[in-house]
Amino acid sequence: MRTPDSTTAAAVLPLVGGPANVLTVAHCMTRLRLGLRDLSLVDEEGLRALPAVLGLVADGLSFQIVLGPGTVARVAPAFEALLTPATDAPAPLGAGQDPAAPPGTAPPGTTPVTTADRLARRGAELKAARTRRNATPLKLFLRRIADVFVPLIPALIGCGVIAGLNGLLVNLGVLPGLTPALTAISSGFMALIAVFVGHNTAKVFGGTPVLGGAVAAVVVYAGVAKVTVLGVTLAPGQGGVLGALAAALLGTYVERWCRRWVPPTLDVLVTPTLTVLLTGLVTLYALMYAAGELSAAIGTAAAWLLSTTGAFAGLVLGALFLPLVMLGLHQALIPIHTTLIEQQGYTVLLPVLAMAGAGQVGAALAVYVRLRHDTSLRTTIRSALPAGLLGVGEPLIYGVSLPLGRPFVTACAGGAAGGAFIGFFSMLGDRVGSTAIGPSGLALFPLLSGNRGLGVTAAIYAGGLLTGYAVGFAATYFLGLGGLTATGPDGDLGGASPARRAEQATV
Fold first, then answer.
1. Which residues are catalytic?
2. Cβ burial, residue 497 (10 Å; 0-12/13-18/19+)
């Protein structure tokens, strides 16, 4: 019996070029990430027409299909199950679709082009241009670093929620017999996260995953407390995820060197031994100390930034996060978040950056209100808004604000206002943090933590969201739409010519 998730998987497969075009399959919290042989075989219009698809992102290394939290975790295994040597079957036809028509073609009698269609195409063009600009060695490296940490997000979320529940029970003095068990459950993963980082690093960068995990395990082994470097005794976990990442990267390069020079008859014995021995020694006598200093500096800098320049720092971070996402530079923040969680129990940066999504929601609501006669665009916003409220912003970004131009800028203004709100309270000593990375928007509430109790922390975060919504809405309503307020009889923006529409859709 076919489930809705298997139906979605079966519909997606032919639209990405069939099994022969799929090289790798992975997923994060919201996206199905596919490595494809030929991106030109992807039918983006057909994918967007699928009800379960919230958006598409091509980042140069993978083709990503936004399905949303929960859904992607069910669709991914169903999709992998379809990747068999069987011959490709034609894509299932929708009701009324012409068998001779290309996949994704609208059935006869439907309106062929709407405002939402134009904005979707404009969003696709912007994404393609961004992908071309982002194909630089630095940005590709940052995406690989993100690929190391993205698979860890579900465990971070689960352990973060349990840690938050445990903290609440401890503060209330409820179930004292259960809280030690919850502490062990929520802390076990974080105690060994370095091993998982090492495993994933070797996997992503072309090494043997178990060897990456082996050299990273040195970082958390209790016996390192007997090792002295430059007169300083090492501490288990010193360097954290940054040390594990560096160790596994070094191990990957040592392993590759061994594969080239060690005779095949000795490879199975010599290569693993040299990889673990040489990398382990460098990790103990150099990487752990250096990474420990860097990790401490990151924690100190984050605390100083928000406690000293909180409102200004929040304004800048909230305003710039959406552009950072567009440039692919937000990937560099993932190890920083993980380091802060490992050190302090939560990251103070994520709630500030989450305000960018609040500004995006406010901007979309303003577009919805102002363009009240544009039914196609309002339908797009209605379908994408629930995901946006839960922190999945791609459908609103690529389907609404970015193609229109100015609403993207006013959404950043909303993010800046929300970030400044949270940053202001950080200056007063009320820190708002998240015990895990991944969720934002309303979905971040179960992961909130801070130094003033859950009630105060949640109230400050809620105030930041409301500020982001309000400023994003007001800025877009009064400044972000320009002449895009009337619609012609065909639903076009103001009935304007293509040249005029292109002019209106730019900042």
1. 28
2. exposed
